[in-house]
Design brief:
- With about 250 residues, the protein is α/β, with parallel strands linked by helices.
- It has a single domain, classed as Metallo-dependent phosphatases (Purple Acid Phosphatase, chain A, domain 2, 4-Layer Sandwich), CATH 3.60.21.
- It contains 8 helices and 11 strands.
- The chain has a 6-stranded mixed β-sheet with strand order 4-3-2-1-10-11. A 5-stranded mixed β-sheet has the order 5-6-7-9-8.
- β5 and β6 form a beta hairpin.
- α1 runs parallel beside α2, α2 crosses α3 and α6 crosses α7.
- The radius of gyration is 18 Å and the shape is globular.
- Its EC number is 3.6.1.54.
- It comes from Lysobacter hankyongensis.
- Keywords: Cell inner membrane, Cell membrane, Hydrolase, Lipid A biosynthesis, Lipid biosynthesis, Lipid metabolism, Manganese, Membrane, Metal-binding.
Length: about 250
């Protein structure tokens, strides 16, 4: 059976066609999978499990149908939905993974991660990430009224878009370097975990990279985003990896 991996759907009420495609994928191909792994940024923004958004309820119901059908679903936090908590997980019937998770795929250890921790050249983002992952910050944020949290998310998204546009206008080559993974961080991560395969998202640059790490042949698989199409990685029982687009 095939194991499926997706990330960076950025589901949002403003793009209902992508949410619809996700529902079709869950009720279709995913029903025949051994397991489904969602490696972060399932949502464009998530400000707490108490947000009664229609998109959140649609996703939870779809995932619950899948898990009730016997397909386990595993979720890893991304930079947009790191506040997804146990309440949502219980509602959706999914398992929350740590930010670095090693799983066995047909006997081979594979490292799963969202991928943002590999972008170490983006110092501004890494500083923001450190702040927002602090337990004290999270507690203060979740204690705010829902309206305030939603306003913060909207402001943060607008600021991020403005920063990226400014970076592209100033130096496109530098933008591509800063927003992609650091080769040093990739090599260090492979060496730290001592395995040959890594799967992540975040950079929106789908590809399968074959690299040498200290004399060992390693494979870094990058998942695609769901902005202009869907994107899925199918890991076959023989270890073959197939990255495919899903048309809207």
């Amino acid at each position: 059976m095939t194991t499926l991996f997706i990330s960076d759907l950025h589901l949002d009420p403003e793009r209902p066609e992508v949410t619809r495609l996700f529902g079709e994928f869950i009720d279709g191909e995913a029903r025949g999978a051994r397991a489904l792994y969602i490696l972060g940024d399932l949502f464009e923004a998530w400000v707490g499990d108490d947000d009664p958004s229609e998109t959140g309820m649609f996703v939870a119901d779809a995932l619950r149908r899948l898990t009730d059908a016997g397909v386990p679903v595993y979720f890893q936090h991304g930079n947009r939905d790191f506040l997804v908590g146990q309440a949502f997980a219980r509602r959706a019937g999914i398992h929350l993974l740590p930010e670095h998770a090693v799983i066995l795929l047909d006997g081979e250890p594979v490292l799963l991660m969202h991928g943002d921790t590999l972008c170490t050249d983006d110092h501004a983002y890494q500083a923001f990430r450190a702040q927002t992952r602090d337990p004290a910050w999270r507690a203060r944020f979740l204690a705010q009224p829902l309206a305030g949290r939603l306003a913060f998310a909207a402001q943060a998204r607008a600021a991020s878009q403005q920063r990226q546009q400014a970076m592209k206008a100033d130096d496109r080559a530098q933008f591509e370097t800063v927003t992609d993974v650091s080769p040093t961080a990739v090599h260090e991560t492979f060496a730290r975990y001592g395995l040959r395969t890594m799967i992540h998202g975040h950079t929106h640059r789908p590809a399968i990279h074959e690299i040498d790490v200290n004399g060992h042949a390693c494979r870094r698989i990058v998942l695609g985003d769901w902005y202009t199409q869907g994107s899925v990685l199918r890991m076959q029982a023989d270890g073959a990896a197939v990255l495919s687009a899903l048309p809207l």
